[in-house]
Amino acid sequence: MNEWTMIEAINHALAFQLRENPNTIILGEDVGVNGGVFRATEGLQQKFGEQRVIDTPLAESTIIGMSIGMASQGLIPIPEIQFMGFIYPAIDQILGHAARLRNRTRGRLSCPMVIRAPFGGGIHAPEHHSESTEAIFAHIPGLRVVIPSSPARAYGLLIAAIQDPDPVIFLEPKRIYRDGKQAIEDNGEALPLDTCFTLREGIDLTLVTWGAMVKETLQAAEQLAAKGIDAEVIDVATIKPLDIDTIIDSVNKTGRCIIVHEAAKTCGVGAEIAALLAEKNITSLLAPIQRVSGYDTVMPMFQNEHFYMPSTERIINAATKSMEYR
Amino acid sequence: MNKNSLTIGRSNYLDNNGTLLKALPDSLNKRKFLISLYQTMVLTRLFDETAINLQRTGIIGTYASCRGQEAIGVAIGHAMLADDVFIPYYRDIAAQFQRGVLLEEVLQYWGGDERGSNFSQQANDFPLCVPIATQLCHAVGIAFALKYQSKPNVAVVTCGDGATSKGDFYEALNMAGAMSLPTLFVINNNQWAISVPLERQTASPTLAHKALAAGISAVQVDGNDLLAMYISVSDALEQIRQTGKPLLIEAVTYRLSDHTTADDATRYMSQKALDDAKQKEPLIRFKHFLTEQHSWTDKEDRALYQQCQQQVDTSVEVYKNLPAQQPGEFFDYMYEQLPNSLVEQKQAFLDGLKRHE
User: Fold this and answer.
1) Is B259 labeled as catalytic in the residue annotation?
2) CATH topology assigned to domain B3-325
């Protein structure tokens, strides 16, 4: 067993797949000699060579575009986009091609690839380095969007994403890259995709979240427990396609649901979860669904980012309001 | 920088009438081979005319004509090896036909059916690409894969002149140059990006010049001169196979059609420009060459046109008789395995169909 942080778990999952499958290729800006700006790929170029861990020119659209070409010819590219705020030049390639290649050729060509990108705020980074725009990708048919929230889930979900035959956007909550260690066996065992993880069982209300906000949500659940409110906490993990059944089962039990995400409120993934609960399960609700989220503002620069990001306090307030609803 | 390195060469074998300007290499100067090139060009022209008629009569949807540009695709299609990979833009049917894409598959695609890109006789080539210039990036990745797999093959990618204004064009060239990847870029410079003429597209003296900044050698070729095109593409492929380095060809041609059947070029293209361009079009020139150099007769020409038209007509019949897609097939290829949410949506769709029956 190894004690790894999330960034170390990611590094080892990548190393495992590079060892396991010679068709696996890592490419991106600064991923080689420098080991990535967060060190996710540290040591991999030394171990696996410059043909398999490639420092590319600074060109996001082509990093993804060429990954599509590579994937179509039997390789498994794992491109890294240095920060989610810089993924937009590649949107044309992701939405227009990666997500569609299988469908538009009726399966003749496909696009098994994992696009890794650190996302989210809270590390006092410069402008454009802190956004959470996962909903853009969740909206797109043909993509999988996977977000780990712990070292062990980062390891198992990344292995699963690399083995998946379709394109996966793998968003890494960089605020918790080094937030604690977990014991992980480096055995290449995948965790299931398209499945929520219930992190805490409870009967009074359901807290649904993903990524770095899992931390505040679990903290809120502990503080609520001290007040006698027993919250269930669900880590969605794969936000597309969504495992709504696990959430429905929980809300059937609790009757109350709070969705927590760092991303802006309007058309966030929380809106989809709320809509599905309303469509499929409105009669089980004892209180209105609430969303505790970022605001519909540009992500503030770091002096104010803590005002933007959902806090434990905001989650507790929403939960209290839900419990008081009659 | 050496001034000569900024000069772009231009290749021609035929003059505007089709008179041979210099001797052909012996290996190419074979009647049967030259006629096979001509045949693909005639087939493409007749297919193109038929496709426009099929659009006008509602049998297929919007169609992008390649009239006037046939020589470029014919040269590419004939010069490539089977295991090279072709990444076309949307006026490349001549090359696609030569590489095993069926005529009826092209009709199927423009007839609004994705199955037309599931080529039955061509496993590896990309389907035509609609978002401008994006395919150039795919080609670079394909070239990487070919190199990584130690295959002696080349990724051949085409684009139009408008594409050379886009970021993906510059990015892809730069990437192929920096990573030394076996890619052949062919620009179909047909002078028009829908309604915007080349002089509004760039201040570059030629489009080939754009390759130089990426460290890629480039040449300009008369794209309506089938011999020059064939020789240029063949030589480029040979050189790429030897060096592993990318090259670029700017094929200068003229779009003798509307942008697509949804367009009306008379709004922006002068009749005189069109008439002038028609004087230099590739089919007449090549026929003239065959007549002068290989005693091609009008009788042979008529027979060839008849044979090609028959092939086109057969493909139309095949296309018209293709079975419709299975109901809800458009769900089935979104992922290798349908996620639960899509299984549910597909079932709801199918139930909805049943209610209508």
Assistant:
1) yes
2) Rossmann fold (3.40.50)
